[in-house]
Amino acid sequence: MTDNNQSDNASLRIKEPDELTPEQFSICRLKSTEPPFTGKYVDCKSDGIYQCVCCGNALFDSKTKYDSGSGWPSFWQVLSENSVAEHADTTHGMRRVEVTCKACDAHLGHVFTDGPAPTGLRYCINSAALHLQERA
Question: What is the per-residue DSSP string for the chain?
Fold first, then answer.
């Protein structure tokens, strides 16, 4: 790992299922969702880089986090092109865009087009899928 803004995904180590909490495994590997307003990072204002809990890939900068009122941590921009992948999601009778970690394919949440400027995007992410690496 070169720095907090991990760009070399090949050097990341993916956690084994028994290294995750039951909630982390259910969300990241089975694509479940934590209840709204219950996650560790919903109201977090700390400065740092949000990483994938499964592999440490850098996903979002806290500077792009905002209160969307949705009940999940929301960001208007990903950290880099190596952060997330997007996939069509038609489960539960809805058309959404699923967001996964680009390094390990962990389910993170969904992205919507009702976010703030400058991107107009709202990355709605499960707290259990994240680890905040605070800036020193």
Answer: --SSS---GGG--PPPGGGS-HHHHHHHHH---PPTT-STTTT----EEEEETTT--EEEEGGGEE--SSSS-EESS-S-TTTEEEEEE-GGG--EEEEEETTT--EEEEEES---TTTT-EEEE-GGGEEEEE--
Catalytic residue check, 104 = no
In this predicted model, what pLDDT tens digit does every residue of 31-54 receive, in sequence order?
Answer: 999 999 999 999 999 999 999 999
Would the pTM count as exceeding 0.85? yes
Selecting among 52, 101, 104, 124, the annotated active-site residue is 124
Domain edges within the chain: 9-134
Statement: 9-134 belongs to CATH 2.170.150.20: yes
Cis ω before 118 (30° cut-off from 0): yes
